[in-house]
Design brief:
This protein is of the alpha+beta class and 693 residues long. The chain has 22 helices and 20 strands.
C-alpha cells in the first residue's frame, strides 16, 4: 500500500519535527503546518481502510492544523502548552494511521496466511503490533530509563570523538552503550530497537578495530541512529503506559540500509587499498573526506522528560539518610520517655528539642541534596544542538563547556533546558558572523560559543558567551521606537536597551531564518527564567560578542530568609538579596525632587520603600529614624525597605499562593511559620518596580 507508506513517513517526519520545536520557531512551525497539510492530503488519497478510522484521523489532523494556526497568529494563550497538544495530537494520529494500515495489511495477507515467512522479514517486522505484556511493563520501564542514560553517554562521547578520533576509551564507551541496549532489547523481544542498535554497533566495532574513522558521514549515521532510538524509546514508553500496540518505524529500513552500506563501503575501500597499493591511498582518503562532509537528513528526538520519572541517588546519601532517621527516632524516644516518666524539666526539654532541631535541619539539607543532579545532561544536549546548527547555518563553531558537574535541583534542570536551547540557537545563528564576515572583521573564521555553569553567592550562574557581532544598541532602540516600546524623547540606559530584545517580536535580524532571529522566542526565555525565580543579565560589546548570564536559585523548595515585622504582619526577605540593615539617623533621610524619599548609605542615595504604604497596612512606626531599614540589592539596583523590627533568620519552605493570589505584586509566595501563621515572602525586584512606579 504505497499511500500508507508515504503517510507513515510523513507522520514520522511530523513527530520528529514537533519534538525539536520551541515557541519562537516561527518558520519551522509554519513548515510543520505545511507538513500537516500533506498528511491530510495523504489521508484523502487512501482508498482503503475502515471509513470510521479514516474520518477520525482526518478530524484529528484538522485539530493539529487549527492549533498550529493559533500559534502562528499568536492567538494561543500558552504557546508551549499548544505545542504540547500538537505533539499529543500527532501521536494520536500515528496510532490511528497504524490501525488503518494494520486493517488493510490484514486483508492483504489473509490469502498468504499459509505462506512461510522468511527469518529476515520476521526480524525486520519485529515489534510491529506487539502489545507489552503486563508482566513485562516494569522491565520495559527500567529498560527505557537505562537506555536513555546510555544514549546520553554515547552522544556525549561521540561529540568528543569528533575532536579526538583516536580516543580508544571513548570509542569503547560508545560501543558498550549500544551493545547493552541491543542485548536488553533482544531479551524483551523489542526486535526493531535491537536490530538498529546491532547495526550501529557493527559500525562502531569496525572503528574499534581501526577499520574506519568515526568522523564525517560515519558520525552522522550513528547520531541519526541515536535520534531514532530516542524516538522509538519514547513511543515505547507511551505504549507501555497505555497498553497500545508498538507501531513499526517507517524510516527504519532506510537507516538500516544506510548503516550496512557504510560498512560495505569501508570493506570495499580496504579491498581497493590492498589491490591498488599505496599510490591510490591519497586519492581514496580524498573521496572519503569529501563524502564525510555530506550533511545528514534531519532526525527528531523525543523529549527526555518522557522517562524522567526516576532519579539516581548515591548509596552513600541513602546510608546517611537511614542513619539520620535512626537518630531522629532515638531523639524522639528520649523526649517521649521524659514525658512518660514525668521527669521532664525545662533544661532537659530545651536540650532534647535543640538536639532534635539539629537532626531535622541536617535531614532537611540531606533530603534536598538527594534532588540535586549535575547539569551535564542539559549541557550535552546543547553540544549536539550546536553541532547540528553549525552545519545547517554553514558556520564553523568552536563550542566549549565548563562546570558540567555543577549540581542543582532536578526541577530546575528540567525547566532550564528550553530557555538554553533558544539562547544557544540565537548565539549560533544570529550572534556569530559567517566565516567571510569574520575574516573581514579581522577575526578567526571559526566562531566561539562557550557555555559554563558555576556557584556564586548561594545561587547557580549559567553563562552563554559568543565572540560574534554583539548587540547594536542603536538598532535595538530604533526598532523599539518603531514598535512603540519606547516613547519618543525617552533616554533608557544601555542595560534597559539591551533587555528590550526580550520583548515578543522585537528582532534586529535583517531576515528571519528557519533557526531563529534574536527577539523571536527570547520573551519566552525571560518568562521561563523568571518563573524559576531567576534573572538574566546581558553584557555585550559591538563587534566583539555577547554574554548572557542566568542566575538561578539552587532549589525552588527552600530559601534562607530574614523575618521582619510591620505592625502585626510578618514578612520574609530572601537573605541573598540583603546587603545590610541599619537604623537611620536624622539628616540621613531626605526628599529629592521627582524621586521621592532617599536615604544616604555609604555615600549612595538609595530609594526608601515604606512597606506599609505599598501593601496598605498599618504601622507602629511612621518615622524612618524610629524604624529599621533593610538594604536590598537586585541586578545592580538597591533600595531601603522600611520595617518595624527584625525577628531573626531561618530557612522556610516556599508555598504557592495559588491562582487566586498568585498574581500579587511584590510577593513571590508564602511560608507556614512555627506558630501556624502564614508569612508572605517578598519579591525584591517587583518591590523595586512598585516603589519606582
Amino acid at each position: 500500500m504505497q499511500e500508507a507508506g508515504k503517510l507513515g513517513e510523513l507522520l514520522e517526519q511530523a513527530a520528529c519535527s514537533i519534538n525539536m520545536l520551541g515557541p519562537g520557531d516561527v518558520a519551522e512551525i509554519d513548515g510543520l503546518d505545511r507538513l500537516m497539510s500533506e498528511i491530510r492530503q495523504s489521508l484523502d488519497e487512501i482508498g482503503r481502510g475502515p471509513e470510521e478510522l479514516l474520518q477520525e484521523a482526518k478530524h484529528v489532523s484538522e485539530g493539529a492544523h487549527d492549533l498550529l494556526q493559533e500559534i502562528l497568529k499568536q492567538a494561543a494563550d500558552d504557546t508551549t502548552g499548544a505545542l504540547e497538544r500538537v505533539s499529543q495530537t500527532i501521536c494520536s494520529l500515528q496510532q490511528l494511521c497504524n490501525k488503518i494500515m494494520d486493517s488493510d495489511e490484514d486483508s492483504e495477507h489473509s490469502a498468504e496466511a499459509a505462506a512461510p515467512e522468511s527469518e529476515n522479514s520476521a526480524e525486520n517486522r519485529g515489534q510491529e503490533g506487539m502489545v507489552i505484556p503486563d508482566d513485562d511493563v516494569a522491565l520495559v520501564m527500567d529498560f527505557i530509563a537505562e537506555s536513555q542514560e546510555h544514549l546520553e553517554t554515547a552522544e556525549a562521547g561521540l561529540l568528543e570523538l569528533e575532536n579526538k578520533p583516536d580516543d580508544q576509551e571513548t570509542l569503547n564507551r560508545i560501543f558498550r552503550a549500544f551493545h547493552t541496549i541491543k542485548g536488553t532489547a533482544g531479551f524483551l523481544n523489542l526486535n526493531e530497537i535491537s536490530s538498529l542498535a546491532h547495526s550501529a554497533e557493527n559500525l562502531l566495532d569496525m572503528a574499534r578495530k581501526g577499520e574506519l574513522v568515526m568522523a564525517g558521514q560515519n558520525t552522522d549515521a550513528i547520531l541519526e541512529s541515536m535520534d531514532m532510538l530516542k524516538n522509538m524509546i519514547g513511543i515505547l514508553h507511551e505504549c507501555a503506559e497505555t497498553s497500545r500496540p508498538v507501531p513499526a518505524q517507517a524510516r527504519l529500513p532506510r537507516l538500516l540500509a544506510r548503516l550496512e552500506s557504510l560498512a560495505k563501503e569501508q570493506e570495499l575501500a580496504e579491498a581497493m587499498q590492498s589491490s591498488a597499493g599505496a599510490e591510490n591511498d591519497q586519492k581514496l582518503d580524498g573521496v572519503l573526506e569529501e563524502a564525510g562532509r555530506a550533511a545528514p537528513e534531519a532526525a527528531g528526538s523525543v523529549k527526555s522528560s518522557a522517562v524522567e520519572d526516576k532519579i539516581k541517588v548515591s548509596t552513600a546519601r541513602l546510608d546517611e539518610l537511614i542513619n539520620m532517621t535512626g537518630e531522629l527516632v532515638i531523639a524522639h524516644s528520649m523526649v517521649a520517655e521524659d514525658v512518660i516518666r514525668g521527669t521532664l524539666s525545662l533544661e532537659s526539654c530545651s536540650r532534647n528539642v535543640a538536639h532534635q532541631g539539629k537532626i531535622v535541619r541536617d535531614l532537611q539539607e540531606l533530603s534536598m541534596s538527594m534532588r540535586m543532579v549535575p547539569i551535564s545532561g542539559v549541557f550535552q544536549k546543547m553540544a549536539r544542538l550546536v553541532r547540528d546548527l553549525s552545519r545547517k547555518a554553514g558556520k564553523k563553531v568552536d563550542f566549549r563547556m565548563s562546570g558540567e558537574e555543577t549540581e542543582l535541583d532536578r526541577t530546575i534542570v528540567d525547566k532550564i533546558a528550553d530557555p538554553l536551547v533558544h539562547m544557544v540557537r540565537n548565539s549560533v545563528d544570529h550572534g556569530l558572523e559567517t566565516a567571510d564576515e569574520r575574516r573581514k572583521a579581522g577575526k578567526d573564521a571559526t566562531g566561539r560559543v562557550e557555555l559554563r555553569a558555576f556557584h556564586q553567592a548561594g545561587s547557580i550562574v549559567i553563562e552563554i558567551e559568543d565572540d560574534g557581532r554583539g548587540l547594536d544598541k542603536n538598532r535595538i532602540l530604533q526598532k523599539a521606537l518603531d514598535k512603540g516600546l519606547v516613547a519618543a524623547g525617552q533616554t533608557p540606559t544601555d542595560d534597559e536597551i539591551y533587555k528590550l530584545i526580550f520583548h515578543a517580536g522585537l528582532s534586529t535580524a535583517s531576515k528571519i531564518t528557519s533557526v531563529s532571529g534574536r527577539g523571536v522566542g527570547m520573551d519566552v526565555v525571560k518568562r521561563n527564567i523568571e518563573a524559576l525565580r531567576g534573572r538574566i543579565d546581558i553584557a555585550t560589546t559591538l563587534g566583539a560578542g555577547t554574554t548572557f548570564s542566568i542566575r538561578l536559585p539552587l532549589t525552588l523548595a527552600i530559601i534562607d530568609g530574614q523575618i521582619v515585622s510591620v505592625d502585626q504582619q510578618r514578612y520574609i526577605i530572601p537573605t541573598n538579596a540583603i546587603e545590610q540593615s541599619l537604623r537611620p539617623v536624622a539628616g540621613q533621610v531626605s526628599s529629592v525632587m521627582n524621586r521621592g524619599e532617599m536615604v544616604t548609605v555609604r555615600g549612595q542615595l538609595l530609594p526608601l520603600v515604606r512597606l506599609h504604604e505599598l501593601f496598605e497596612t498599618g504601622s507602629q512606626r511612621r518615622e524612618p529614624t524610629d524604624s529599621l531599614l533593610v538594604v536590598v540589592e537586585e541586578n545592580g539596583r538597591k533600595c531601603c525597605i522600611m520595617v518595624d523590627e527584625l525577628l531573626g533568620q531561618q530557612q522556610v519552605v516556599i508555598k504557592s499562593l495559588g491562582q487566586a493570589l498568585g498574581g500579587v505584586r511584590g510577593v513571590s509566595g508564602g511560608a507556614i511559620m512555627g506558630d501556624g501563621r502564614v508569612s508572605l515572602i517578598l519579591d525584591v525586584p517587583s518591590l523595586m518596580e512598585m516603589a519606582q512606579g
